[in-house]
Task: structure prediction
Amino acid sequence: MKVAGVVLAAGASNRLGRPKQNLRLGSETLLERAVRVATAAGLNPVFVVVPPDNRTTFAAPARVVTNPDAAEGMASSIRAAVAAAIQVEADAVVILACDQPAVTAEHLVELLRNGMEGGDVVASTYAECKGVPAYFPASAFEELLSLRGDKGARDLLATARTVALKDGDLDIDTAEDWARARSAFDPAEK
Result:
């Protein structure tokens, strides 16, 4: 079974004021960290969705998907990634954001296991919410391709089974979030 990884990295980082994808935790950027974790979980290929004016850096083996409609919001990045996954005949995708440092390969493997066993959507749960990373089988691709706006796949996740993600509520949107992430996940800060 071919499960593609999708790292969403086309956001403008408006609240942070600089591209969060390039922020460093230890020896790697947030984007490099997300690609490493996705690859370590066995996702293949791993797609990184970037804006047209891409200024992010990351290492292979990820494949770049440029989202010309990045200004629309998260839904356009999901559509671009799912279209790429369909081209490589993926049976499923795991969508993750580049700004959640608590995500581990072990967590993604658990999402995969649950998704492949049940054949349905599986979301991460944290802070009493369902969100990404999330597993979507090919049967959900049509719905993912119909998404619009900046709310992402929230409606599809509403009824999804879940896997708990410790500290998953930490996503880096503000300087305070970044300080918290560095304190918790950067070995140089401990």
Q: What stands out?
A: The chain is about 30% helix and 25% strand. The chain has a mean pLDDT of 90.
